[in-house]
Amino acid sequence: MAMTQHKIVFSGPPGAGKTTAIAMLSDIPPVVTDVRNTDAGLGKELTTVGLDFGQADLGNGQCVRLFGTPGQLRFDFMWRIIATDALGLVILIDNTRPDPLDDFATYLDAYADLLPTINCAVGIGRTGECPLPTVDQFSSLLAERGLAFPVLPVDVRRREDVLMLVDTVLIQAEMRT
Amino acid sequence: MTSLSTLTTTLLQPARQTAQALFAEVDGARAVVIATADGFDLAHAGHQSIDPARLAAMVSSVSALGDAASRETGIGTPRYLVIESSDGRLVVRCMQVQEQALVAVVLTDKSVTLGFVLSHLSKAEQLMNAA
Hints:
The structure holds two protein chains of two kinds.
Chain A: E1 4-11, H1 18-25, E2 34-36, E3 46-48, E4 52-59, E5 62-68, H2 76-83, E6 88-94, H3 100-110, E7 119-125, H4 135-144, E8 151-154, H5 159-176
Parallel strand pairs in A: 1-5, 1-6, 6-7, 7-8
Antiparallel strand pairs in A: 2-3, 4-5
Helix pairs in contact in A: 3-4
Chain B: H1 6-9, H2 12-25, E1 29-36, E2 41-46, H3 52-72, E3 80-85, E4 88-97, E5 100-108, H4 114-130
Antiparallel strand pairs in B: 1-2, 1-5, 3-4, 4-5
Helix pairs in contact in B: 2-4
């Protein structure tokens, strides 16, 4: 059976779990471009500055190539490079950051011209620690922009949660055909 | 506002001196930027038309991709990356200075010999480590 390959991009602010999500799903050791973080305000040892790459065989002849973007705004040039020709986009948000809705708006702005046509899912992480803003508030922000994508609470350390995000993207793609 | 780590701030002065020296010594250089591996501009010299913060972030990404490609293909750790374009070059040196990974980039026009830039970048790393 011929293998169908899809490209799915994980994007979102620093610490949202893009590298972890790809590592959870990838069948191969992920390609990572993490370097030592020198931003004292970011609170983590390593940060992605190039891209992440992984690959997962979903069965039924479907393979997804998973790409992760760097999170910081200074790397926004990479966001568009990586998203080129993607079947889908997963936006991950860390609900413990100071202003998750503002983070979300930043990514909606960055991908504004892609969003009307791309298959997209939104994963909100660490909702157990920080239940606010709610999933409905993220959905409302989408609605204000005339967009409607699935917004799901996720723990990217759980493979099934990451798979659910990817599945959500693939289902949208299937429905468009 | 971003705050650099203490280790990084100790490199600011040597980085400034090195950037200015590189820009002065390499004829045909349009800009020099010395940045942390995670894309913060520590020091720069050159023409105003270049945004050093943006160049620092781009060179950080390029350097990390070079490192990943080197690692995946088993050829060790990258020392230089060169982007040879129709009207000039970006020459990147991956440095270790006081146990801190840095990248130095020289943007040149077409007139400059590549080996000349490479030797100056190598010397720059030695100077920064001696500072």
